[in-house]
Design brief:
Length: 127
């Protein structure tokens, strides 16, 4: 098996996304019983295995790179919101009234004078 996969692309983040999409489509198909969903999942399975077994490593690498560039802003936004939610008891998130840069200040410190790192605007904030 090791020799069979030598020189082939293998799996990456795009394939992981495709397989998760396939699972979602299969579950939806079990509920909705639509033949179109069955065909779509079959096509996606074939495409995923084509990518895994492909010997054109550069093309698959570029596909994955394009996928990651597309998904990166979305995952960054999700991770940022997750971090804000986890820190909500310790920090208050504020925006500069001048340049809209988002900053955090510690909670429970009363009124603070905050200086923006980007535009050097000073403003009062209640933490």
């Amino acid at each position: 098996m090791e020799n069979f996969m030598r020189g082939r692309y293998g799996t990456d983040q795009l394939n992981l996304f495709i397989f998760i999409l396939i699972l979602i489509i299969i579950v939806a198909n079990a509920i909705l019983k639509k033949q179109v969903l069955n065909g779509l999942s079959t096509i996606l399975i074939i495409y995923a295995y084509y990518r895994i077994l492909s010997k054109d490593i550069n093309a698959r690498y570029n596909e994955n790179k394009k996928f990651l560039e597309t998904v990166s802003p979305i995952s960054t936004k999700i991770n940022s919101r997750k971090k804000k939610f986890e820190n909500r008891k310790e920090y208050k998130y504020i925006k500069c009234p001048n340049c809209k840069l988002e900053m955090r200040v510690p909670r429970g410190k009363g009124k603070l004078i905050v200086k923006c790192k980007k535009c050097n605007e000073k403003f009062n904030v209640k933490s």
